[in-house]
Design a protein that fits this description.
single chain, alpha+beta, Aldehyde Ferredoxin Oxidoreductase,  A, domain 1, 2 domains, six-stranded mixed beta sheet, 11 helices
Amino acid sequence: METNGRYGWTGKLLEVDLSERTYSARETEDYTNRFIGGKGVGGRIYWDNLTAGKDAFHEDSPLILMTGPLAATPAPSGSRWLICGKSPSLYPECFASANLGGSFGAQLKKAGYDGLIIKGKSCDTTYLLITDGKLEFRRASHLNGLPVSATMRAIQNEVGKKVGIVTTGIGGENRVRFATVATDAGGSGSVGFGAIMGSKNLKAIAVRGSGVIPVAHPDTIRSIRQKIKRMTGEGYFNLYGSPAPLAETEVVKKIQCRGCSQGCWRSLYRTTSGEEGIRKCQSSFFYTLWDKRAHGDLSQATFLATSFANDYSLCTMELPGVLIWLEQCIENGIIS
């Protein structure tokens, strides 16, 4: 992949028009000399394409996926990327961003692009496949109604296992305003970007690349990674002990995002009934209050509730409020 002497960037942004099924490239350098990182560049692109008076679901509202200069390099936390645009879950609707891990950001860079700018609305359900600078618009009607995990498996069966995927589930398809997007390694992004994908009839984006992102001082980066490993051992596993215990489950193995030099509590768990899923941080525990009420103590229901939320692309930060509201509706006789 030609980088023209750039470090940390490919130099290209991919702009996609779903309505016209066309795409073109623009120069990353138009932004990187003035704005820092993927969030700075993404914010400026949003400003340049601001759709005043049009809501988040309008086809002219851009959905922006951005990497940063560390993505796909050996730098610590080089797996991180973000998605940004006008959020349908905020009132009033305004700019927001969500930060994710997994392999999607690194694969996008290796495929030749620092970011994606997606506009328009497909006439039918579509997913995008990006391979080393080439884009395909693929029909995805067979993916309609599929949860996140089944969608990822279906796409991998079609294009191969070694692909970074970002997708949404049934909540996103139905424009639930707090619908999430999901990527591999259990990555999830909130503030309603799954609903924006649904509004554009965009089920998923799959990307794979073989390029190499040059860095100015590779030996220095290698030294920094080694120092971090010496300081933290196995990351949070070493700093804070074992992964968070979940009732009626066991840890199968650790899961790390691509190129992570530190590691966190992200792990593959298995319940006593054989259900498996990746868990980390807050999302693992959002259902504990209702689990205790129903069973007297925590059970695998807490684990399964998170699985349902992830598969249906429903934000676990929002669901407790929805459940409390639902209880109030029942207590006041609004629903049975």
